[in-house]
Amino acid sequence: MANSGFYERIGDGKFFPNEATIGPWSSDAQHGGPPCALLAKMMDDFSRSDSTFISKISIEFLKPVLFGVVEVSLRIVRPGYKVSLVEGELAVNGEPTLRGRAWRLRKTPNRVPEVSMAEGLVLDPEAFEVLNLDAFPYISNIEWRFEEGSFYDPGPVLVHARPKIPLISNETTSGLAEMIIVADSANGISQELTMGEFVYVPVDLMISILDEPIPGEFIKYDARTRIDPGGVGTSIMTISQGGRLKASSLHTLYVDKGKA
């Protein structure tokens, strides 16, 4: 299929996942990145207005995101000129699966003095070798260039990444959606315990956004995961592009021995 993406649009607010959405745990389950990005995109489109942008996204995982017909429902909770709030729910085969909230804030040029958002040296992502990953379909549809750390080694990472395919077939993908497709991988790419021997179950994804990334370009993800011996974890990620801070994300994790 020409320009095939993570999803096919099959109706008003309805989509069907392609193989590229499949994650590491089961061929019947999607990775969290694409459905979170889809819900974020739909909330963004539904509430869009001039000079405003999505400044915070919070998504709760109600259950695993299975492979099936995806339907998104939306509502405005708080309308407003400067600040507004939209809620969305993503259901799979009629079962509520993700629940999201997005705050939209108004931006005006030079409203406050500029504060530096520089994030260290600006290094060309192309200078780092592409790591071809094919362990499962989702991960093979992202271009990964690791600056520090590795997917195969435990510990924090600095990685430049971008999706190879659009979120929805034959549609343009926003910088917001591209960022979220990858950001949900924070706990996987910065794992502290070997995936396969231990299972990481995210219960949420929260992203505070200063500025939407430019679509189609590499985004840099600085990710670290911390795990308490009791089996509760946190993944924290700083997200930048072109040497400027774009967003910060947080995952809350249930961690246990064995497979999901």
From TrEMBL:
UniProt-listed Gene3D superfamilies: Acyl-CoA thioesterase, double hotdog domain
Domain Acyl-CoA thioesterase-like C-terminal: 132-255
Recorded superkingdom: Bacteria
Every Acyl-CoA thioesterase-like N-terminal HotDog domain range: 23-104
Protein name: Thioesterase superfamily protein
Organism: Acidithrix ferrooxidans
